[in-house]
Amino acid sequence: MFRRVLQLGLGPGRLTRGLGTRRGSFTLDWEAQVLEVKKKLRSILPGEPLELHDTSHLPPEHSDVVIVGGGILGLSVAFWLKKLEKKRDAIRVLVVEQDHTYSKASTGLSVGGIWQQFSLPENIQLSLFSINFLRNINEHLAVVDAPPVDLKFNPAGYLVLASEKDAASLENKVRVQRQEGAKICLMSAEQLQNKFPWINTEGVALASYGMEDEGWFDPWSLLHGLRRKVQSMGVLFCQGEVTRFITSSSHMETSSREEVILKRIHEVHVKMDNSLEYQPVECAVVINAAGAWSGQIAELAGIGNGPPGTLQGTKLPVEPRKRYVYLWHCPQGPGLEAPLVADTSGVYFRREGLGSNYLGGCSPTEEEEPDPANLEVDHDFFQKKVLPHLAQRVPAFETLKCLMHPQVHSAWAGYYDYNTFDQNGVVGPHPLVVNMYFATGFSGHGLQHAPGIGRAVAEMVLQGGFETINMSPFLFSRFYLGEKLQDYNIL
Amino acid sequence: MAAPGAFLRRVAREWTRHARGIHDMRESVTPDSSQKRRTLLQFLSSYFHDIEVLREYLLRMEIHKMHWKNRPVSSIQEKYGPSIAGALFVLKQGGSVKFRDKEWIRPDGRGRFSSEFLEFQGVPVEAVDASGCAINYQGLDHLLPLKELRSLRLRRCPNVDDWCLGRLHPLAGSLQELSLAGCPRISERGLACLHHLQNLRRLDISDLPAVSHPGLTQILVEEMLPHCEVLGADWAQGLTLRREEQPRDTGSPVSA
């Protein structure tokens, strides 16, 4: 038996033939085979980019929350979502921003003021929450190995001047503000003249001045501090434009037997810049924090497609409005103690830096609204609308009139995400598109209320209700019900 | 491993031995990344997530310690009154207090102080010297009810910043002397809100590293407070010599 096996195994003819052919194939294809094996290994091992299908520039295919808009409101919502989640890395958040240079975003172009002098208690509470957040910013936004965030906060205060006819409402407003805990003092015209001798108090009956926690800060440093912290918490960023929502509808009946169509967003199509490539991102919740462009995003989700006067036909009334800010130089102007002054005529100004520079502007009336198609500045607006009132209120600014070329160093324009209904923000879910939440429409106050709004939206998404500040008056349904939330303030 | 708590405490003590405030601690736990020489913990934390979590923990502990030092002493306030509560707070932090017509009460090297001031009911506090203490915005709660405070010294306090200066306006009626020399976090923006203190007669704003233009700031503050004597930077401090004159005139800062 052994001999048989040996004969079979070591039979000279078979063995040598077998070996010969194998050796032949070895030497011919050895290098090519090794290369093939190496290529296969490299494509299987993690960390190596696939040459054919490189998708690193695209957003992920699945994300729990997609935040449309990477400005201060979007980043604030992302921060609070990550801070309030129950377990670490429980939620995947994606922030989609169409322009990473923030060239047209309202955050960077903002004057940066923060004050508590509102008439709605919710707005005052939002301001107080935000100022507490900003004061402790380096505890909230601490990132290991990064320099601390320097907000360059000027605690100079906010001064509101009121004429005779507005004096009573100003007193009422200050009473509400004091009840909420803001430290505002009322001054008569003589007291105002003593405190700020550079003001001309003609036409001023009463003034309210914030003693603490009011002033202005640098919005860029807040934006970048938030962005850095939010990235360290694990939020994904993507530069792209949201072009489409894939939704599904379900017919439901209300308790009074009315038929209602509820929609749910399943996918967000994010299109890359300068290309037709897009990525469908499957998501559970979409947050509309797109600022001046929120109206377009809402239309994409089908909000407002319906007969007017019904809930389906109620559009999101947020549209971009252009506002100008001018920077001028006046050597004899108000000193270091000058607060952010809001005149009776709607003109505001504040000091900028140590070098006698001032910046300010005015909100135009409805008839004079400039075209928001671009961010070009109209210098005539300063000459005709802003300067006369400025020079009347602060006589030192008269010198700006007498020169051939006014001392306006520079000017820029930015968008307000203007709520045409009542100039107050929209927060919370839409009643029909069930998983779209709004955080927009604050018409110039978005920056100063951003921490509070972010927290409110995050609480709504995670816990189903508002806990810290009750923002239920800011829900979308008020547009359909016609309940205006008016806050009588100038800026 | 025996007592990881003890190990952590030893590590924390190592790091906090030279740190006097939250800013310094931030420096040692999160040093400036532009420095070429990295510390061992920094090096390890870029490779191990555990070390990064440890550094975050140490930072949070330091912040917590600062909050703990500045916590409100409401129970003492109810029993003895606001001035004694404020005095106790300052003495516990390591500062000194002077009641009207009495001597200065200072803690000795070990932090102990005599408790004779507990009998000074109704005697107002006239001067507080909180130099070098870890007092911050919240801790100022204890000093604001001292309505007859005449002199406040906050030299080299690492946690006093612009927000704290905005809070000093309730003392406007009585405060006559204020010293902020050497505080690393005060900038010209905080100095702008000192205009509420109209009774101020002496203000010391020398050696503030965060003020960008000390000379110009001093001129503006002098304009803002006309009755006050402002000690601070020499007005020519911010000016630099022209290149040709520099090698000759190294002594005086003002060129002839």
Automatic annotation (TrEMBL), chain A:
* SUPFAM superfamilies with a match to the protein in the record: FAD/NAD(P)-binding domain
Q: Output the Gene Ontology cellular-component terms.
A: mitochondrial inner membrane
Report which residue ranges the record marks as coiled coil.
Answer: none
Q: Name one GO biological process term.
A: mitochondrial respiratory chain complex I assembly
Q: Name one Pfam family in it.
A: DAO
Q: Which GO terms describe its molecular function?
A: oxidoreductase activity
What range(s) does the FAD dependent oxidoreductase domain occupy? 64-460
Q: Which InterPro entries match?
A: FAD-dep_OxRdtase, FAD/NAD-bd_sf
Taxonomy, superkingdom: Eukaryota
The alphabetized UniProt keywords are: Oxidoreductase
Known role = Required for the assembly of the mitochondrial membrane respiratory chain NADH dehydrogenase (Complex I). Involved in mid-late stages of complex I assembly.
Q: What is this protein called?
A: FAD-dependent oxidoreductase domain-containing protein 1
Name its species: Jaculus jaculus
